[in-house]
Write a structure and sequence with these properties.
mainly alpha; 2 domains; 3-stranded mixed beta sheet
């Protein structure tokens, strides 16, 4: 018997609220907005094949949707990522983000505040489907003396935990027109979250998915893309690498300041100097090599401990995962099996094992 959307809503709310009450994770109001926002997003999605066949679909969108399905097939056949209904539907949300994340950190630390949820455990962000609600949460955290970043998120993963095609993650207008290489990387990244997931370890999970997206994205561009798409992506990625180098060095310097034995007053002074230097370095990069490209202006205007703290989650462990991939003979099935094994270990043992495994010599 077909279950109505309304009934799906109440079933989902009941399950999530029950889990929340049992685990003590979050408020019922927050969990309800999460369920409601996700179901609203899913209700707007329909099969990619329907969009492609619809004469009203604009040709540029039709071509992009066809491209995503080739990427989706490639993810299964070449990258050994899950073969399911994820990214086989498309929704136009008529907004520029799937959700808005809120992250926060103390004045003299890069350690992100964490929130705990059913299934995923504790993570260093809080996501909202409504931007004003995200901003309101940010204001509350600022009133507590924390530094806050509220930023748009184009996509998220439900980890493949929900059954059936209706609940599968869809393609969205928030990223469908990205450069080809970046579009491929996003799809591969989100699918990687369905392969392995370590509860309470955002850095492990995001770094693993980032490693998969980089490996897979590079392969896609080499094997399946055009010279024009590769050139476009090379320019895009060069700026990103330079942004990453600039910000990760600042993050490292600030972390050393915060962990030092200086007085808080001295730490605040050193922090102000380092943040001013970061913005000056960016201005020089923008005026020079980037020829005025302003895509990162907003990030640097709002840069603080919270926004710098987020960067580490996506990048810090990537080299270890890339070395682990090499050690496993560049075989995705073996690589994923080893990552799942490591993910199941206690946190400290997980990090130590990943470090030692990533440092090992690659298999001939």
């Amino acid at each position: 018997m077909r279950v109505s959307v309304k009934k799906k809503w109440w079933m989902a709310v009941g399950v999530v609220v029950l889990l929340g009450s049992l685990s003590g994770c979050g408020s019922v109001r927050y969990l309800a907005q999460s369920v409601g926002g996700h179901l609203s997003l899913l209700n707007q999605a329909k099969p990619v094949s329907d969009w492609i066949a619809d004469p009203a679909t604009a040709e540029p969108l039709r071509e992009r949707l066809q491209l995503t399905q080739r990427m989706r097939d490639y993810a299964v056949s070449e990258l050994k990522l899950p073969d399911n209904a994820s990214y086989r539907r498309y929704a136009d949300l008529h907004r520029n983000a799937a959700v808005w994340n809120v992250v926060a950190a103390p004045e003299l630390s890069l350690q992100l505040k964490t929130w705990c949820y059913p299934v995923t455990g504790c993570v260093g962000y809080r996501g909202y489907f409504d931007q004003p609600a995200a901003n309101a949460q940010g204001d509350e955290l600022r009133a507590e003396g924390l530094e806050v970043s509220v930023y748009a998120v184009p996509a998220y993963s439900t980890l493949g935990k929900l059954p059936g095609g209706f609940f599968s993650d869809p393609l969205l207008n928030t990223f469908i027109r990205w450069p080809e290489g970046e579009l491929a990387r996003l799809i591969f990244h989100e699918l990687a979250h369905q392969v392995a997931f370590a509860k309470d370890d955002t850095m492990f999970n995001e770094s693993f998915a980032t490693a998969v997206e980089r490996i897979g994205g590079t392969r896609w561009l080499v094997e399946k893309s055009t010279a024009a798409a590769r050139d476009e992506y090379e320019r895009y990625d060069q700026r990103r690498q330079e942004f990453r180098a600039l910000t990760m060095q600042a993050r490292s310097d600030l972390d050393a300041i915060y962990r030092s034995g200086r007085s808080d007053a001295d730490k605040r002074g050193a922090k102000a100097e380092r943040m001013a230097a970061l913005r000056a370095d960016y201005a020089a990069l923008k005026a020079g090599a980037w020829a005025g490209y302003a895509g990162y202006d907003g990030w640097f205007e709002r840069a603080n401990n919270a926004s710098l703290g987020v960067l580490a989650a996506y990048n810090e462990l990537v080299p270890q995962f890339e070395r682990l991939f090499e050690r496993e003979g560049r075989d995705f099935d073996r690589f994923y099996a080893e990552v799942r094994r490591i993910a199941a270990l206690p946190r400290d043992e997980r990090r130590a094992t990943l470090q030692s495994a990533g440092a090992a010599t690659a298999t001939p």
